[in-house]
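Re: [ENG-882] Designed sequences occasionally contain unexpected residues at chain ends

Forwarding the minimal case from QA. Structure tokens:
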């Protein structure tokens, strides 16, 4: 078989990188649970019709079919491109068994047919939280979501050395009300262009608004001026009002966003910033929207995002509004692991290699390993009864710090980094705390 060619956009970590990812996912899920979110998992596929009506994403959906399916057989299915659309279906399907407001977290793979580049992949892991109500959901949850996100990122920063973040927030009511106050009849088209502000700049956005949406030069300039407003406190309200546009929906969005920024600043000063260029490309967002930047890695763009949706899930009688946030786990980790910014102290969980004197003593070595594992010490038995020097070199290549000799007869353990060797009892010995599990290292 010829050497396989790597597939662009489908990242695969080596064991040390996977250990980093596993530790990060552990911190994320445990923090979610501290805030009362329950885990769920949904299927990988959804009806194509459902996936393709959620905004400018239909061209990136992977279609799924059976290789030898007959023509016209079965429903057209697609791999989910995020976790929000399948979650909406999940809520409708299981509503009778859920208690509202329902708080869920979900960590799964998603697929998106994007052009692969740093920070953007075709297969990647997301970690989502959502709070969903029945018919109504209090606006204070819009403040709660970014505070949960900051708690997650704060723990990842303190415990694992990941970069700190800044969350940029806006409110679609504010933007839509502003556009309607200007006499614009298609706010969604304007939002989609404004969402490109960071990528192409204000001048290019204004050009798109005039040539593609049909706005006047004055309308386009006003929309760009709104997008340029940013503040970590309530001063953005005065800046918006100074533009002289009036509309009831604008006032509602301004009030909601001011409360969010003020309350978030009281808990996490400077971490939540009102940024009125934030739009989010998916059309199910109806109020607050969030985007998140890694400090020092801003060129990656938003690595976590979300917002309020008031009509994503409905069965025609009952509506399930919600607010949610999605962590792009692979988007965050793949560049950091690839550049060596985040590494593990060893590529295997094993802290001990139990040496084998000869094949007759392998059974005793297995017994030693079993005793160590019973007390939580990860270990493995040497694959070959070889000279001790070769077994030590094998442990070095694996990154295992300790080698156990004797296998029940004059037992001793050697730290192969320092060369120190001491008698040891497998029923009591433990490795030093820093060596019990692989440690994460950050160059930040």
């Amino acid at each position: 078989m010829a050497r396989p060619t790597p597939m662009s956009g489908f990242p695969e970590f080596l064991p040390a990188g996977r250990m980093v990812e596993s530790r990060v996912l552990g911190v994320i899920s445990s923090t979610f649970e501290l805030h009362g979110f329950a885990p769920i998992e949904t299927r990988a596929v959804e009806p194509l019709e459902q996936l393709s009506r959620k905004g400018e994403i239909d061209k990136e959906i992977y279609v799924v079919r059976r290789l030898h399916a007959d023509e016209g057989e079965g429903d057209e299915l697609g791999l989910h491109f995020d976790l929000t659309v399948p979650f909406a279906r999940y809520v409708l399907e299981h509503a009778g068994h859920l208690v509202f407001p329902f708080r869920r977290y979900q960590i799964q793979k998603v697929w998106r047919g994007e052009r692969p580049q740093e920070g953007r992949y075709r297969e990647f892991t997301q970690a989502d939280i959502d709070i969903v109500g029945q018919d109504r959901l209090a606006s204070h949850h819009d403040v709660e979501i970014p505070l949960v996100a900051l708690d997650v990122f704060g723990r990842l920063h303190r415990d694992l050395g990941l970069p700190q973040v800044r969350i940029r927030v806006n409110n679609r009511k504010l933007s839509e009300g502003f556009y309607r106050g200007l006499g614009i009849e298609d706010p969604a088209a304007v939002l989609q262009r404004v969402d490109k502000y960071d990528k192409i700049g204000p001048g290019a956005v204004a050009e798109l608004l005039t040539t593609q949406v049909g706005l006047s030069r004055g309308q386009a300039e006003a929309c760009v001026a709104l997008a340029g407003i940013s503040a970590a406190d309530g001063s953005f309200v005065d800046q918006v009002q100074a533009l002289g546009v009036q509309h009831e929906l604008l006032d509602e969005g301004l009030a909601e966003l001011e409360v969010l920024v003020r309350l978030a600043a009281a808990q996490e000063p400077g971490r939540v910033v009102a940024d009125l260029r934030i739009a989010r490309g998916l059309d199910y967002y109806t109020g607050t929207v969030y985007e998140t930047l890694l400090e020092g890695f801003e060129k990656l763009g938003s690595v976590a995002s979300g917002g309020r949706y008031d009509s994503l899930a409905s069965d025609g009688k009952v509506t399930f509004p919600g607010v949610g946030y999605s962590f792009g786990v692979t988007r965050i980790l793949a560049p950091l692991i690839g550049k060596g910014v985040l590494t593990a102290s060893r590529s295997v969980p094993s802290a001990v290699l139990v040496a084998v004197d000869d094949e007759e003593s392998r059974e005793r070595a297995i017994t030693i390993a079993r005793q160590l594992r019973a007390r939580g010490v990860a270990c493995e038995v040497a694959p070959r009864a070889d000279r001790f020097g070769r077994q030590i070199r094998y442990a070095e290549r694996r990154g295992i710090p300790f080698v156990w000799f004797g296998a029940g007869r004059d037992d001793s353990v050697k730290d192969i980094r320092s060369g120190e060797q001491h008698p040891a009892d497998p029923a009591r010995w433990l490795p030093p705390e820093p060596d019990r599990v692989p440690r994460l290292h950050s160059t930040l």
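QA comment: On inspection the terminal residues look reasonable. The mean pLDDT is 92. Proposing we downgrade this to a documentation issue.
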